[in-house]
Write a sequence for this structure.
């Protein structure tokens, strides 16, 4: 049994190559592979920009953070971006300790993240 | 109407604790009586008093003020006066008087005695867990330890950090554990008011030991976000979140000992 995480998808008005993905639950070693596969499928389908809504992401560990960095790198390689919004303070602390705040594109809310899309 | 009655009763197996069974109205006329009874508690040098108040029919601010004074004296001596068994009606009156901000309330004696172990004697509590070396068992384990910390008064932030530490240590134990010896992972938790200590023991392959030693000695002080790989930041994260981290390799097993001080 893996930790509960659900990904919910939405289109982003005016940005056909962008998907908004809501992360709901815990992102950890038990479910990174599933999340990796789902996000990579989006990249493969031509969505080069991902706006990740972390409002309901309760928990992330070092393995989970590893794949977030991987998504960021993959998006850049496709001239797109992986933007994160609504990060709770516990998750933000882990991102900060890993030293990833400058490597990940983090925004206060979804509107701000969408506005930053090219 | 019968007046207030205080019966001093022994606490089973705990001669160092005093229990008052209080019945009747805690009215202004009872102040002198409370004072005299309390003096006899002070003479015994017992500084932890449990007031069992299920039989209290009325509370006045004057009598509660008297009990607050008693409590203050006990606190100055390193003890406390705690309350158990109050009805909802009496508790709401006590709340209106501000007493719920002063006294600690417990539903029953056993919880009050446990609080004495924790608050006054500062005793630690121990939990032992054993689970198969598979990733799927780690999330419920880490969440349980986090809830224990929260229940013991650790802050939400501290509990989250503890959850992360348990997660990372246990994931490492699964990932680097022996593939030949399918022995359960042991997690020993020792928690008190000041700190939580975690010890995770797992079986290791003797031929992997040298690699593990090399990994742990090369452990960076802080995690490196720029590394290309998706994994490999766990130990450094534990180090950043905890106050001490020791890894021992002996014989066929690895034990990781982590201490995390409680933040106020």
């Amino acid at each position: 049994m893996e930790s509960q995480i659900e990904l919910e998808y939405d289109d982003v008005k005016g940005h056909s190559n962008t998907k908004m993905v809501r992360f709901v639950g815990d992102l950890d070693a038990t479910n990174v592979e599933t999340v990796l596969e789902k996000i990579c499928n989006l990249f493969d389908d031509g969505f080069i920009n991902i706006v990740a809504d972390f409002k309901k992401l309760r928990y992330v560990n070092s393995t989970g953070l590893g794949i977030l960095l991987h998504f960021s790198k993959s998006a850049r390689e496709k001239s797109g971006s992986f933007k994160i919004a609504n990060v709770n303070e516990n998750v933000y602390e882990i991102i900060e300790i890993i030293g990833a705040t400058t490597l990940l594109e983090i925004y206060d809310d979804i509107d701000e993240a969408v506005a930053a899309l090219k | 109407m019968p007046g207030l009655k205080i019966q001093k009763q022994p606490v089973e197996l705990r001669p160092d604790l005093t229990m008052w069974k209080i019945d009747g109205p805690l009215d202004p006329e009872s102040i002198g009586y409370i004072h005299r009874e309390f003096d006899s508690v002070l003479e015994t040098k017992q500084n932890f008093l449990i007031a069992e108040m299920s039989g209290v029919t009325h509370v006045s601010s004057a009598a509660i003020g008297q009990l607050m004074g008693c409590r203050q004296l006990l606190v100055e001596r390193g003890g406390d006066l705690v309350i158990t068994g109050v009805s909802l009606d009496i508790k709401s009156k006590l709340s209106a008087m501000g007493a719920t901000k002063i006294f600690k309330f417990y539903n029953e004696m056993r919880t009050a005695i446990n609080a004495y172990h924790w608050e006054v004697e500062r005793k630690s509590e121990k939990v032992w867990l054993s689970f198969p070396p598979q990733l799927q068992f780690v999330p419920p384990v880490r969440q349980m330890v986090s809830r224990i910390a929260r229940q013991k008064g650790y802050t939400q932030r501290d509990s989250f950090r503890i959850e992360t530490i348990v997660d990372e240590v246990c994931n490492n134990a699964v990932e680097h554990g022996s593939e030949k010896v399918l022995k359960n992972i042991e997690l020993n938790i020792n928690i008190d008011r000041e700190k939580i200590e975690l010890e995770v023991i797992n079986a290791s392959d003797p031929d992997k030991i040298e690699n593990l030693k090399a990994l742990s000695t090369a452990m960076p002080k802080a995690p490196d976000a720029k590394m290309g790989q998706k994994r490999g930041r766990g130990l450094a994260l534990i180090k950043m979140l905890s106050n001490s981290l020791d890894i021992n390799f002996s014989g066929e097993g690895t034990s990781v000992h982590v201490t995390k001080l409680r933040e106020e």
Summary: Chain A touches chain B through 26 residues (CB under 8 Å). Strands of chain A lie at 5-12, 15-27, 49-60, 81-85, 105-107. The domain at 5-115 of chain A is CATH 3.30.750.24 (Transcription Regulator spoIIAA).
